[in-house]
Amino acid sequence: MPFYDLHVHTTLSIGENSVEEVVDMAGRLGLTGLGVVRYYTGRIEKIPEIKGTDIVSAVMIKPDNKEDLDATAKKIRNKVELLMVHGGNYDVNRAACENSMIDILCHPELGRRDSGLDHICVKAAQENDVAIEINFREILESYKRQRVYIISSMMKNIKLCRKYNANVITTSGAITKWGMRGGRELAAITHVLGLDLGDAISSLSMLPIELVKKNREKLANRRWEGVKVVD
To answer: Is 95 in contact with 120 (CB distance < 8 Å)?
Structure first.
């Protein structure tokens, strides 16, 4: 079964390893696809071409407010295969869920004592096809009471996503190659947090694969609303 980890950092952003090194690790872990994330700072760093792993061009934006998010998303949506939002601020979380140009809201619970989401956000995410991320690095690099808050928040968000049928994407969020994990290991974490096993596996396989495929078709001008070109 193909597995995609759509959130991995390299030296192109805040990561410690090169693209070549994380791609090599992805191969060892049995990952088929890898989202190489870069932060948008007015320009988008180019990813080197490497064979063997499906590299997804992913860009994360860190908006200050809804207006900033909407403007930036509109500017770069047609330049990247995957558009992600750095979550944590509730207003930004909600704005991301309400914007159909956004693909994934990352770690909405980041730096909070609550989950960062409520029923309004998650219903909007479902309506706008915005996936909610479960980021393994947030668990891995936390400890004691902070880890309790994070796990509790993730469990709450998964429960909301199940209730309102919003998509969940599981990622490693790795900033080093040693923080990466195989697809089944990451799916097991999401399953323990409350997602059905089939959905947990889908959060690393079917959902990311379909998301990437859809966006690539749009970028290639091969997809229109209600119409699909079949080769």
So the answer is: no
The DSSP element (H or E) to which 148 belongs, if any, is helix 144-164
What is the 3-state composition of the chain as percent helix, strand, coil, each rounded to the nearest 5?
45, 20, 35
What are the pLDDT digits (tens) for 112-161? 999 999 999 999 999 999 999 999 999 999 999 999 999 999 999 999 99
pTM of the model: 0.92
Max Cα distance, the chain (Å): 53
Between CA 196 and CA 135 the distance in angstroms is 17
Q: Answer for the pair 73, 52: CB distance below 8 angstroms, yes or no.
A: no
Q: Rounded to 5 degrees, what angle do the CA atoms 172, 80, 135 make?
A: 15
Q: How far apart are CA 214 and CA 208, in angstroms?
A: 10
Q: How far apart are CA 23 and CA 15, in angstroms?
A: 13
Task: Label residues 172-208 b or e (16+ Cβ within 10 Å = b).
Answer: bbbbbbebbbbbbebbbbbbebbbeeebbbbbbbebb
Residues with Cβ within 8 Å of residue 198, at least 6 apart in sequence: none
What's the fold here for domain 4-228?
TIM Barrel (3.20.20)
Domain limits of the chain? Answer: 4-228
Q: For residue 14, what are the contacts with CB-CB under 8 A and spacing of at least 6?
A: 39, 175
Q: Is 230 exposed, middle or buried (0-12, 13-18, 19+ CB in 10 A)?
A: exposed
